[in-house]
Design brief:
With 358 residues, this protein is of the alpha+beta class. It is built from 8 helices and 17 strands. It has an 8-stranded antiparallel beta sheet. Strands 15-8-7-16-17 form a 5-stranded mixed beta sheet, with no helix packed on it. A two-stranded antiparallel ribbon has the order 3-4. Strand 13 and strand 14 form a beta hairpin.
Length: 358
């Protein structure tokens, strides 16, 4: 080989190498990435997360969720919220203050229908229903004396209570917030197509494996204590949005022949007297959707409509019982484009605070 050919070869080899690398990169970019499916347990419920990525990121997902648990779980003896409830001196982190501030905002916007101090009343009525006997009025009145979102404030990074017996419980917002945290984690890892579901609360982004928006089923409330009837009321197609559903499925009480959900009104300390059975809310983030879905179960359809006039950015889908006990639906104008009658072989179905594929 002469000198000219050797020189030419020295230039050709790097070029060919770069050409091969470029070709491999293009092929990899064109090859569709697989969808990972992770399942786990957090906040006393199951999570299901599907996302398009070459690598499984469940370790990072679990770390993010346990950070939320360490901030907001009243069942974690070392969590920030537990220490607040025990009136111990504790340094509040951003997760706790963000959720507290949002809870305070939604409480104000809903006239106290959303209230993270209502747990003592909810627990007392829950035990009463299980025994088939309502708590005594004196018990309800006693609990009401230290229940109320205006009885606790965040001041200069500290929680100030009007009464040391005030207890915080973020169960009506924490799962939604957890969904937001995981969604942020996935976005930071460059993932655009995913669905995060924790106990029925959802954040959906991009498209599913079929290259269409994610399809979420909302279950019809029925008298089915064994959870054998899981009929879907409607299917919603969602993307780049958060969704939360609140409702006491298969858990009703009757009065005057009418069906009511076991939802406690923080103002009265007694179960609500309206027939809204399921409240689904779509919002820009899941913590907001979660909180408003809970509040609307207290307010009922008419009360919720009044709030929606101030918050047209929220989309809702309600299931309620009419005077004859027949299930009816009402949804806001923005929800119309989300409702589909598609017959799907696989949908995400919501029931009992969980979502699963059919």
């Amino acid at each position: 080989m002469n000198k000219r050919n050797r020189k030419r070869l020295r230039w050709q080899i790097p070029f060919l190498f770069l050409l091969i690398i470029g070709t491999v990169y293009i092929i990899r970019q064109q090859r569709p990435q697989p969808y990972q499916k992770d399942t786990g347990f957090i906040f006393g419920t199951v999570y299901h997360i599907t996302y398009q990525n070459d690598k499984d990121l469940q370790t990072g997902i679990d770390e993010a969720l346990h950070e939320v648990d360490a901030s907001l779980s009243p069942f974690n003896p070392q969590s920030i919220i537990t220490q607040v409830n025990q009136n111990r001196t504790v340094k509040l982190n951003k997760m706790f203050t963000d959720v507290f501030s949002l809870a305070e905002e939604v409480s104000t916007e809903t006239g106290g229908a959303f209230d993270i101090t209502v747990a003592p009343l909810v627990n007392t009525w829950g035990f009463g229903f299980k025994k088939g006997k309502a708590p005594a009025p004196a018990v309800v009145d006693s609990l009401r004396s230290f229940v109320g979102f205006n009885k606790v404030k965040l001041v200069n990074g500290k929680i100030i209570k009007q009464d040391p017996r005030v207890m915080l419980d973020c169960s009506g917002i924490a799962k939604g917030y957890g969904c937001d945290v995981v969604a942020d984690f996935l976005r930071k890892n460059g993932i655009k197509n995913f669905i995060v579901e924790i106990g029925g609360e959802i954040v959906a982004s991009g498209i599913d494996q079929k290259l269409v928006p994610w399809h979420i089923g909302v279950t019809k409330p029925t008298d089915d204590s064994l959870n054998t009837n899981q009929e879907i009321e409607t299917v919603l197609k969602v993307t780049n949005i958060a969704m939360a559903t609140s409702g006491n499925y298969r858990n009703f009480y009757y009065k005057g022949g009418r069906k009511f959900a076991h939802t406690i009104d923080p103002h009265t300390g007694y179960p609500v007297q309206h027939s809204l059975l399921s409240s689904t809310v779509l919002a820009k983030n899941c913590a907001t959707a979660d909180a408003y879905a809970t509040a609307f179960m207290v307010l009922g359809v008419n009360g919720a409509k009044a709030v929606l006039k101030k918050h047209p950015e929220l989309m809702v889908y309600f299931i309620y019982a009419d005077d004859k006990g027949k299930l009816k639906e009402w949804y806001s104008p923005g929800m119309k484009d989300k409702i589909t009658d598609d017959q799907l072989t696989t949908v995400q179905k919501q029931h009992h605070g969980r979502t699963k594929s059919l």
